[in-house]
Amino acid sequence: AYDAQTVLRGGIAVYFPRDPVARDRIELRLGNMISGCGCLPNKSPLFFQTSLSGSFPASVWQPKVRLTTAKRGPLFPCVKCEKKDKEEDSSEKPSFEKLSVERAPYHSYRDSISGQVEPASGARASILGQDYLPEGTVGQARAAGAPGPSDESSGTSSYGKKPGSRRKTYKAAGAVSESTEMNTVVDQVVEDDGLFERSEEEANDEFSDFVVYQKENETDELTGYDLDKKLGRPHPFIDPKVRKPIKEPLTSEELWWNWRKPDKEQWSRWQRKRPDSETVFLKAMAESGQIKLYGEEPTLTETALYRARRHLYKEERLQAEHDRLEKEGPIAYYSEWVKAWKKDTSREAIQKHYEETGEDENTQLIEMFSCQTAREYRIMMGTDYRVSRDPLAMRMKEEQIKQIWGGDPVYPTVNYIQDPDQVIDFRGPDFHEPTPNVLAYLQQNGNITSREEMDKILAGEKVEQVKVKTPFSDDEAMAKAVDIGEKEDSDDEGKFGDDENITRNWSVLKTTPELRKSKPKPARGKGKMTLEEAIADSENLTDFLLDFDQDKRGRHESTVLSAFHPQKILTVCSSFGLEDDFMLWYIIIAGTVSKYHKSKTCSSN
Amino acid sequence: MASSILLQQSIICNTQFGKSIKNGWGATKSNFLEKGKKIGDIKARVAVDAMETAASPTAFPFFQTQPQQQDTPASKLELADPEFYKMGFVRSMRAYGVEFREGPNGFGVYASKDIEPSRRAKVVMEIPLELMLTISQKTPWMFFPDIIPVGHPIFDIINSTNPETDWDLRMACLLLYAFDHDKNFWQLYGDFLPSAEECTSLLLATEDDLKELHDDDLASTMRKEKARAREFWEKNWHYGMPLKVKRLARDPERFIWAVSMAQTRHINFRIRVGSLVQDANMFAPYADMLNHSCQPNCFFHWRFRDRMFEVMTNAGQRIKKGEEMTVNYMKGQRNNMLMQRYGFSSLSNPWDVLPFSGNAKIHLDSFLSVFNISGSHEDYYHNAKIANEGDSFVDGAVLAAARTLPTWSDGDIPPIPSLEIKAVKTLQQECQQFLAEYSTTSKQDQKILDSTPEMSWTREAAIKYRLHRKLFVEKVIEALDIYQDRILF
Questions:
Q1: Mutation test of the interface with chain A: which of B127, B195, B264, B457, choosing the one with the most A Cβ atoms within 10 A?
Q2: Which Gene3D superfamilies does its entry note (chain B) (predicted)?
Q3: Mean pLDDT of residues grouped by 10 in chain A (605 residues)?
Q4: Which of chain B's residues have a Cβ under 8 Å away from the Cβ of A136?
Q5: B45 neighbourhood in chain A, CB within 8 Å
Q6: How far apart, in whole angstroms, are the C-alpha atoms of residue B184 and residue B33?
Q7: A9 CB-contact burial (10 Å; exposed 0-12 / middle 13-18 / buried 19+)
């Protein structure tokens, strides 16, 4: 009958625990209440609250409330009697909070928010009962329910210096001896104060274990802006002392012409040179005396020069090797790495062997390589780690090596992100300086035709153009193109002078004529190649077109390139008033070239 | 009735440095007596249920009365500094239903509310591992929490100790290091440890104090212990040591104090951290404020799940509000061992021994039945149910007498009274000889204690030690008197 019964009290459902002990107690208590003379020694303040004010505190969860209304009626006067008793008691000992009603230990807790005793279980409890808590959280709920200390302590911690200093007995015992000592000390200090201001500090210094580099009280006093900034008070973003007023902004035209070098070279830290292998190598080279640097750090120019030189030297070496290979023949060249090959490697001997056995040069080469050991092969291919590659890199100091490779051979961290092929910016700090007016220069030398002239020329040639263009279909135009191409070619020769041979870096070369004159003939002799020669050198049209923009092919291609540079063709076209059909002409010329090339190859064969 | 018990307790309860002894026997008895008094109260108020209440094991808290509250041992002491609990509370230490009180004799833990008997042990304190200082008992040295950094010279010092014997030196090093370790909890907690003046450990005793013991064996042991600690300090805190070691203990006194802390408040316990089970020497804050009792109402428990060191009450034991919570420091040890390790002795240590050498023997079963002692030899206890009410004579000392007196027992053969009385006389003479070896009598000792209230703690402990010894012998004589009186009936 007592199992989880619901009793409606004030319209609120109250659940009671199934705990058999609690049930026993309810029975006991009921028995007492019934049989007692009516002066029930109930002392629960919460119970009083419940019955008198009609509020609904936690104690309704207590089993003792489970009474029928009929029995509760006569109990009220007794409760009032008891309240007097309680007041008397509390007047005797007010500090003691009396909660004499024994509750099951952790079925209620004092809520730190409301300050009241709350049920720890039941439907209205903020913390569920143990049965509802997940495994392992019972302890947490209990720990949350334990009331924390609320009083304040007067003492302060000595942080391990004086153990026992916060014990009450310590204070009592130590106070007697200490107070006398303290008094004497204080007297002395008072006497000394006038004489030596620093006596106290010095005394402290003797006791401290550590070297003190700077006294704490030596902080410079901040004022105004710095103080505001330090304390976080509202302050301008820029220090008003440092701040320069912004003048009237210049127009972009004025900015262009009034450009000035900045006072400080590096006004942003993003302008800093990032460390890369080249700089480090340059510094190492400078240290070892191979080169001389202008300053401490290699400049951008020096670095670029170094890179270019390195590349060129490497190319040179490779070229020399290649030449040697050409000269000696492959067997003689590679026999260096085949120690076991004792036969004569001269061209005559090879030829003789060929005549005797019918084995050509390639077969002999393969035969020779079959005698090569693995070690020799590695040395030949340059993968032998015993051969030190760069003596300087070997001799570099550890920190220099680490600057490049980051100390970790597998994951070099320092220059990992850097692109080794990064093209440096040659512009330098004065790249804003105005360049010479190219247009005026060209006009002055008659290299450029004005619009009026162009119009005149165009007007003269218009009829002819129509004539040329209209009668042919596209296919026939290709067939006809041969003639025009020849004609074009001859025109090209006659019209353009020396200047036209300058095909690259023209702006530089034209602004500095000395550069041009320094090596006049050899460059010119090579560059001055006729179109025929150029065409003869290029194998076919596709190759030619593919390599068009790249200068890989060396001097021959560069000549061809100069002859067929679209800019030049455009110039030619425009001189004939054929500006609009530039692409057409280009194709025509290209077709000529291919045709010419074919005929050439046929004739040579 | 109750007041006499409490008086006796107040004599016995000589807390000296936070840990105190306590007459466990007295605790049980006072429990019983309080119950009796309660019956009286109920009789006065509600006559009908008197019998039922007396029979039922559950107390009836409804009828607790105010004056009785004031009699509890806790009410004589004042609450400890609130900061003491707070600093642990914010670090997840929890105390349930107990409070820390501080008296003239040191700290103690007292129940702040009634703890009902329950089938399972109840947790009254939870101390997280992070607050403790532990070091494994055997190599390899492991520290939980691991506060000692790798390569710190204090580790080399700890490592240089003898793994078998020098656990206290290791603990002292650890404690001193914790005091120096930044933001360590023990920097705060150390303020509540007994200072060197308050600690009764004989390590801190002077030569005169050791002489006052009137026990040469114990005195020489303590001298050796002291010399050992001092040697260790001289070996490791010499001039050339780095500052971070030197500043831990500038003078040997501080180190010896730390060693005495290690000896008096260490807890040897097997803990399990993760999959690692290890026997550890521990400093457990708050748990070390529990005082000693031969009949404790609490015990320690290691909660593996969240690495909490728990103090739990005995299952099925009722603890009234204001009663002291106690644990048993050492089981089955004599007073001299307690004195050597903890610096206190117990008047009624049930394990105390008298070195009888004669041939006289008394009949064991008769002696036990005279004093209503039940149980086997290992766990004698006073069976209060069959004893007469008001019989407060039997305490731990009588149990000790039952163990230490030379006895005979041969099946059902009853003792011959004349021979028994003769044996009793012989034994009493031997006891008188024991007393005669001391230069002072118990009365004189008591007088010394009463006359000089401001004695050093160690001196007081030393005098109490010999006083307790004498009182024990006197108690044995008295018990033998009672025995020969009652044997005839």
A1: B195
A2: Rubisco LSMT, substrate-binding domain, set domain protein methyltransferase, domain 1
A3: 38 42 44 40 40 41 42 43 46 53 60 68 61 72 73 81 82 42 37 40 49 57 82 83 80 80 68 73 88 85 88 91 92 92 90 92 93 89 67 76 65 54 60 68 81 89 60 52 46 46 63 58 46 55 50 44 51 52 52 50 45
A4: 305
A5: 41
A6: 45
A7: middle
